[in-house]
Write a structure and sequence with these properties.
Layout lengths: L1 E6 L6 H9 L6 E6 L5 H8 L4 E3 L10 H12 L3 E5 L1 H13 L4 E6 L6 E2 L2 E2 L2 H11 L4 E4 L2 H9 L7 E3 L13 H11 L7 E5 L9 H6 L7 E5 L5 H10 L6 E5 L4 H6 L3 E4 L8 H8 L4 E3 L3 H4 L9 E3 L5 H10 L16 H24 L1
Parallel strand pairs: 1-2, 1-4, 2-3, 4-5, 5-8, 8-9, 10-11, 10-13, 11-12, 13-14, 14-15
Antiparallel strand pairs: 6-7
Helix pairs in contact: 3-4, 4-5
Amino acid sequence: MKVLHVITGLAAGGAEQQLRTLLPHMDCASEVAVLTRPGALADAIRDAGTPVRAVGMGGNRDLRALPRLTALMRAGRYQVVHAHLYRACVYAPPAARLAAVPVVVSTEHSAGARHIEGRPVTAPVRALYRASARLTHAVVAVSPTVADRLHGWGLPPSRVVTIPNGVDLAAFRYDPRAAGHARLSLGIPPETFVVGGVGRLVAGKNFHLLVEALPRLDGAVLLLVGAGPEQPRLRSLAERLGVGRRVVFAGESVHVPALLSAMDVLAAPSQEETFGLAVVEALAAGLPVLYGACPAIDDLPPGTVPGARRVPPHRLAAELAALRDGPRTRLPPPPALDRYDVRRQARRLHDLYDRLLTRRHQERLS
């Protein structure tokens, strides 16, 4: 089976990291087409053995991407095209149909209640999404929360399949040597209490709450892993509060496991998430986690993830202070996380491809 994954970009965001994690575990010949800038993960994906092809799309309305994608798909003779992220989910399905690709799948990683990838969820956005989804054979939702939202947008339940994100749990296991190297490279002393935040630096992630908590956390350092348009505002806020030297911007990184090992707690204050990948990765690393929203945790049986606690924004600073003042111990990864093991999700996705290809073959024979 030959599969082309089409993704909007390959900056080190959650969906992009998810694709990178998934590819080595897929039992098929996979390639990747990236619409916009390749970003930090393109080389990592290539180095792991998966070809990455840049489409060179200039913007949301660069219609030249459609014939480029169509030509790429025809030349590659793919059996499955799988789109990831909003722009790819709009452009890849029509290109795949024009190229006569037998099966077209998309994954919805980022459908929030009010925003999708930073853009407001307006009626035109939903209409365009529905139109492109009609050209797919299945839409994968990364959580039941996302599936419910897609149903609310008008996608029929028969078209939506829930397959949660996958995490290579062993890769995120706490590594004290990696923690020491990461702290040394970032200039963080070994004894310093480190509050971590992982994700795109965009307004919806609410990382400003972590900066605002720092004045109440004497001696603590905030380590932010990710890049995005909010970085200048966060840096300016830190300077105004007098904690500029205690905020470390690590930028985009393909070394998230080592950076999680360097943290003492992960704080994820976003109030709107579609899965909560960073939370699951942090729990796999044995970190205590304070979060605002995380469907991945909500979908597990109550009490099975004792290291993760939902915290309202007004309590965040106090909860972080309590962790700073308490014993610093790593927690064993909760067995409930096995539900999100990437090998299990890769098998489910491969089975979906197989079912859809079999159905298409039967339809052609009938």
